[in-house]
Amino acid sequence: MPRLQSLERRSSTLFLAAGGLMVVHTGIHTLIAFTNTTYPLHHEMPFGFLGHLLAFVALLGLYPQLVSRSPKLTRSGAGLAVLGMVGWVAVGATTLTESLGVTPPAWLSAFAPLAIFGVILGYLAFGVAGLRTDVLTRTTALVVLTPAAVMLYNMAVALTTGGTQAGQVIVAGGFALTHLAIGAALRSEEFPTGGAEPAVSAAG
């Protein structure tokens, strides 16, 4: 718990840093889509990979302030965030081995979908927990939901059109903007320092 409390104090900074990495990731997508630039690595590496991984760490920073008010949703969100991290590590390991000309083991790719579920369900759980309590402002809680919306859009486009390079720029930019917005919203908030009693009616 002390480590999570330490993350709580740094959560806004971590979200802003994650958003910054995703801005660079968006720039790479833009160069690939609209210029003749050849990127030597997989497009997710390293900035997209590191940005999403750092974002999940930042998301866990919301745990200490929400768990007493909405324990079920917050604990579910934390578990989903950890699974999302596992998924992104699998994505990173898979793309790294492929870039080295090595075929990754089949079991590794089986963990990759956890990255998608972690983004959709993890942010959804924390955002709804924030909406059901008075710990986060309503605006901040709604902003926490936005990465899940971006991932749902990404999945819908991928399933219906197969995706395009321009579409990847939109999605990458969406992730960058939403994480910067979360960091800015958290930075502007004044979190309570006292140990308020849990609101039983708001428990999730």
The helix content, as a percent range, equals over 70%
Uncertain runs with pLDDT below 50, 5 residues or more? Answer: 191-204
Please provide the count of β strands.
Answer: 0
Find the structural class using helix and strand composition. mainly alpha
- Tally of distinct domains: 1
Number of helices: 8
| Order of H and E elements | HHHHHHHH
Shape: globular
Question: Distance between the terminal alpha carbons, to the nearest Å?
Answer: 20 Å
In percent, how much strand structure appears in the residues? under 5%
Largest sheet: none
What is the C-alpha radius of gyration, as a whole number of Å? 17 Å
Mean pLDDT value: 86
Polypeptide structure, described:
This protein is mostly helical. It has one domain (2-188). The chain contains eight helices and no strands. Helix 1 packs antiparallel against helix 2 (47-60). The longest helix is centred in the first third of the chain and has 33 residues, at 2-34. It starts with a helix and ends in a 16-residue tail after the last helix. Residues 191-204 have low confidence and may be disordered.
